[in-house]
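Hi support team,

I'm opening this ticket because the web form for multi-chain structure prediction keeps timing out on my end. I have pasted the exact lines I submitted so you can reproduce it. The total is 449 residues across two entries, so I didn't expect it to be a heavy job. Is there a limit I'm missing, or should I split the entries? Thanks in advance, R.K.
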Amino acid sequence: MAKKTKKLMKKGKRLDGRKPDEMRPIKIKAGYVKRADGSAYIEWGGNKVVASVHGPRTCYPRHERSPYKARIQFKYKLAPFSVDDRANPAPSRRDKEISKVSSEALEKAVFTEYYPKTTIDIYATVIEAAAGTRVAALSAASVALADAGIPMRDLVPACATGKIEDTVVLDLNKDEDQEGQADLPVAYLPHNDEITLMQMDGDLTPEEYEEALDLAVDGCMKVYEEQKRALRERYEHIEQETEEE
Amino acid sequence: MKKIVIPGEKIEEKANGETYREKKGKKTEKRSKRYGMLYKNNGRGKIIPMKTKYIPQKRDKIIGVVSSVKYGGYVVDLNSPYDAFLSTDEADDEYKLKDLISIEIGDVDEVKDTSLRNGRKFYGGNMIEINPAVTERVIGKNASMISMIKEKTGSKIFVGANGRIWIKGGDSRKTEKAIEKIEEQAHETGLTEKIKKYLEQGSD
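Hello R.K., no limit was hit. The queue was backed up. Here is the completed structure from your submission:
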């Protein structure tokens, strides 16, 4: 018997009332964890993620050190209470995969060659998950890296697109992610027009893929604006004081 | 004039340090590589990062903490991602674990292996740590800030380029507070005057 699929669109709009190219509300706060060298907190739809950066610091174990560059170590973690069922606190296959692709996505943006033999540790903890946690974690981690004073080529915004009921949509929510036909998370370097992360679940035709990619890049640009706003907001009072003087 | 800059942001001015060049079509663009404050003055710019980690540089005078005692010398924590070794020949005394010493950076190679020289032990006093990016502000132009603090509080102060500051004697509590204030307000103008007022009146 064919699986009964949930209805995800009504009169050209999604169930949460968004248009296909509309994102969920997003808010980033830079400098969230006092003990970290740099940190950020992101609220994106129902997602809540804290990213903290520690380092550059001496790299242990020694055999992981590179004499040429710093190692970017991203640790993605779903808190046990972040999902409906309890998430096992031990690193899962999914956690390891997201950590690996995210560190590679960020490594492209960081001048790692400035800090040989060191490690830059990034911890992204998902407090509440509602689809799109990897892009939320990556976007927050990028702000946290800048906040830590690490030299970077650019910020790395990330956003996901997907397909539901044969329509390409931006920023899937939880139901759309689970019941939809495809999911395409993308991380992007805006200045160089370079993609540093792309994964795909499900099926897209070549035309749909092109459309989804364009939409993802548009989404990344919106995230990029929010990242810049968050960083500007942190030291805004200093800038304003000078203008007054 | 000053402006917050974000990594990747295009810089129009002639900015020294903390920028990189990227080819865009036929043109090359200058962009910031740090999250910091861009100070503009007569078409010239300077980017001061909001935060940095200290990276050893030749001839820097810094404050180290002895982190391990070895047969031929000491492993010294430099408040940096890199530790360094100080030979007993370069030490003025016999050091113990966690002793504070002033040292000069000798040679630094491409993998940041660092040699140290002129180890001198600090006897007594306290050490505070600040953001290494603002040590220049603590010292001030022609050492104006640090001399003023020394004069007003009567403390002996040594500012290490690695963001460690040693304070002894005088009104050391007030000195510490004044330095914390400088760190907090490092990007403000007229800071020497503000700190002078604070030291004289005990408030801003």
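A quick check on our side: The CA atoms of residues 75 and 123 of chain A lie 5 Å apart. Let us know if the file doesn't open in your viewer.
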